[in-house]
């Protein structure tokens, strides 16, 4: 029988909403194009860098309220599907003159993408030299989704690189558990040294730390720090404790937060695709799941895609443990969900019933990333509008809990080209309909006037399969599972 190590809160259908932190979102003056990362300048207070999916990095002066183009990789970046310029990190040494980026470029071997981790040199004015690019790592992707894309330096000075499972649905390539694949993992490398590829004997522009957990293994790649991940969309280190937090996007049922305490020796296996959150993944055909000796590490917490009195979502966006100036937010791990207007607050040191709270009354939609300022201030990005918000703890925004989710009446179901939705009588505000694919991607969004009693929906050319349809009106929310056939 598969073993599973429990380490946290199991939020199945019983998560409660305790007294919620007072919080306010303050929009910054400038807007951006599909932001995927927010990075602080390590030398200058008030200076942020906003990474944009299509391949540009904008420098934002939050004090003066101006932005300037800082780095343009758009001619190299392939931003199809979930690809693009996805992450950036400055070298942690104060006198270092390097910045690292994670992006996808077109593959020369297939019609898919190549995950590329590269380094650029910085000039004396702190600007990157576009001609200085050095590629550290290139990983062929078997599909265009699940590219992960974050970068983070740990307290140990090593670079941590989260990778997705290679895409598709349900990890059809078995990468999450495959010890010979760099996909579905967190990698840990030393960018201050050069090494040699043990397979080709070719030099490479990074070294493997000697204390990585699988150094010397005959069947597991030495770069691997932890494995069993689906699409770890944003990781972060707690700047006070050094703990590592991971937001891993789920498949059909669960979203999860994984945790590694500071000083961890690595080697964790978070179970995908044998597990999804705390649950067994029912769609698994992975050849590794039958290994009765395999030990999986439980997530710190998970939450479902449906129901649960609004403590739900469909595509987690990992955040940060708050260490900024707002005293009432101290110690909360703050994260969000791309597919639902949620801001989550989690503290493991509270009573179990108070650990996880949620705010659904804030102007958040399509939350794509978080970022810390040099002073610990926390920022969050709205992907579609391009708005960056400062999260403060001095607001008086109401702390009302979300209403219970309603099950919608939709027909026909299965559907082909058209769909009808009966609008519940208490959905009196302006209506928004969103259709989500099984992997949490938003594939359609439309607005309808308040007072509508029925919605006639023309379906786009969708791939046959399972979808989730969501109807919102103010704080009211309804969902239904939908099958699309040709």
UniProtKB/TrEMBL annotation:
Keyword DNA damage applies: no
SUPFAM superfamilies xref list: Soluble quinoprotein glucose dehydrogenase (SSF50952)
Keywords attached to this entry: Signal
InterPro entries (UniProt xref): 6-blade_b-propeller_TolB-like, Glc/Sorbosone_DH, Quinoprot_gluc/sorb_DH_b-prop, Secre_tail
Signal sequence annotation: 1-19
Keyword Ribonucleoprotein: no
The Secretion system C-terminal sorting domain, residue ranges: 410-481
One Pfam family, short name: Por_Secre_tail
Superkingdom of origin organism: Bacteria
Annotated ranges, domain Glucose/Sorbosone dehydrogenase: 44-380
Name of this protein: T9SS type A sorting domain-containing protein
Species for this entry: Neolewinella maritima
């Amino acid at each position: 029988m598969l073993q599973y190590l429990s380490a946290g809160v199991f939020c199945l259908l019983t998560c409660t909403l305790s007294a919620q932190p007072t919080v306010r979102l303050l929009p910054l003056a400038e807007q951006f194009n599909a932001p995927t990362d927010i990075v602080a300048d390590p030398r200058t207070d008030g200076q942020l860098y906003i990474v944009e999916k299509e391949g540009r990095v904008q420098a934002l002066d939050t004090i003066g309220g101006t932005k300037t183009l800082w780095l343009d990789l758009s001619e190299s970046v392939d931003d199809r599907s979930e690809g693009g310029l996805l992450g950036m990190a400055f070298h942690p040494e104060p006198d270092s003159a390097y910045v690292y980026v994670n992006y996808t470029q077109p593959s020369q071997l297939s019609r898919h993408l190549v995950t590329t981790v590269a380094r650029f040199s910085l000039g004396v004015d702190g600007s990157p030299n576009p001609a200085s690019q050095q590629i550290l790592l290139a990983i062929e992707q078997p599909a265009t989704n699940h590219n992960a894309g974050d970068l983070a330096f740990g307290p140990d000075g090593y670079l941590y690189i989260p990778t997705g499972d290679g895409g598709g649905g349900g990890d059809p390539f078995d990468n999450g558990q495959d010890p010979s694949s760099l996909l579905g993992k967190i990698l840990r490398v030393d960018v201050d040294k050069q090494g040699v590829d043990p397979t080709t004997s070719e030099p490479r522009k990074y070294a493997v730390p000697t204390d990585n957990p699988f150094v010397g293994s005959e069947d597991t790649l030495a770069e691997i720090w932890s494995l069993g991940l689906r699409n770890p969309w944003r990781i972060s280190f707690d700047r006070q404790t050094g703990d590592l937090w991971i937001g891993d996007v789920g498949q059909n049922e669960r979203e999860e937060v994984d945790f590694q305490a500071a000083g961890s020796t690595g080697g964790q296996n978070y179970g995908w695709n044998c597990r999804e959150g705390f649950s067994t993944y029912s769609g698994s055909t992975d050849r590794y799941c039958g290994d009765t000796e395999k030990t999986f590490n439980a997530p710190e917490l998970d939450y479902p895609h449906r129901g649960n009195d609004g403590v739900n979502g469909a595509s987690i966006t990992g955040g940060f443990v708050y260490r900024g100036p707002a005293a009432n937010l101290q110690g909360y791990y703050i994260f969000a969900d791309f597919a639902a207007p949620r801001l989550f607050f989690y503290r493991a040191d509270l009573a179990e019933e108070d650990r996880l709270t949620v705010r659904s009354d804030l102007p958040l939609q399509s939350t794509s990333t978080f970022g810390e300022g040099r002073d610990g201030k926390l920022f969050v990005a709205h992907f579609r509008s391009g708005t960056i918000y400062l999260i403060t703890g001095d607001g008086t925004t109401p702390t009302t809990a979300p209403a219970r989710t309603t099950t919608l009446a939709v027909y026909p179901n299965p559907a082909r080209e058209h769909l009808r939705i009966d609008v519940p009588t208490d959905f009196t505000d302006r209506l928004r309909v969103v259709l989500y694919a099984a992997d949490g991607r938003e594939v359609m969004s439309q607005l309808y006037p308040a007072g509508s009693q029925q919605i006639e929906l023309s379906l786009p050319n969708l791939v046959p399969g399972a979808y989730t349809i969501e109807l919102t009106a103010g704080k009211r929310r309804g969902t239904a599972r939908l099958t699309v056939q040709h």
